[in-house]
Amino acid sequence: MISPSLDSLRIFLHVIAASVWVGGQIVLGGLVPQVRRTNPEALRTIARAFGRVAWPAFGVAFLTGVWNLLSVDPSEQGGAYTVTLAVKLLLVGVAAAATIIHSLGRTKLALALGGAVGLVSSLAVMWLGVLLSNAG
Predict the structure, then answer these.
(1) What is the sign of the dihedral through the CA atoms of 30, 32, 36 and 40?
(2) Cα gap 43→92, rounded to integer Å
(3) How many CB atoms sit inside 10 A of residue 12's CB?
């Protein structure tokens, strides 16, 4: 059996947290239209409950992401790695900002655009993370 390490724990926590963040958005995207039709007053309760799980997961993903950065010397990885990392970090900020706009939004535009941009940018962040993990 492969022995666990602090590195494997860090990556495990990062992947689990990112999966909760992104997976929850996908699940909500599938549930919201049906809930809106059958029990629209429940949407706020569902959104708050998701936020109590999602935002801590985002925090864990962020902290383990910083930990990941501290464990790698990007200058040893080359220019493509550095550019991919920079785009990923930019999209983390976009995902957080869009989700905050969605969470605080009161208009249909803020809700729709914040949710869509938050999900798409979060998916892109995960994809870029996969690319970075396979570099070198």
Answers:
(1) positive
(2) 26
(3) 12
